[in-house]
Design brief:
This protein is an alpha+beta fold and 72 residues long. It has two helices and three strands, in the order αβαββ.
Length: 72
């Protein structure tokens, strides 16, 4: 069993706990993809069907990291 120390005052440790819970319930694998800015349908499908861990806007497009239950 893994322990997650948390601070109610500073919030330290909350992000690690949140990500661990997301991985536990959504899948054990992480996948990162870059979606072109003009592909709104693909972006909407990821938000609808996956648990999003991170989103970053880059020069190439929107870089999304999500959880999945299998290697893709």
């Amino acid at each position: 069993m893994r322990v997650f120390p948390l601070s109610a005052r500073t919030g330290q440790g909350c992000e690690e706990l949140k990500n661990a819970l997301l991985r536990h319930f959504a899948g054990e694998y992480e996948k990162t993809v870059t979606i072109p800015y003009d592909d709104g349908a693909a972006l909407a499908a990821l938000y609808r069907d996956k648990v999003i861990l991170n989103r970053e806007d880059t020069a190439e497009g929107i870089r999304i990291t999500y959880c999945t239950d299998r290697e893709e």
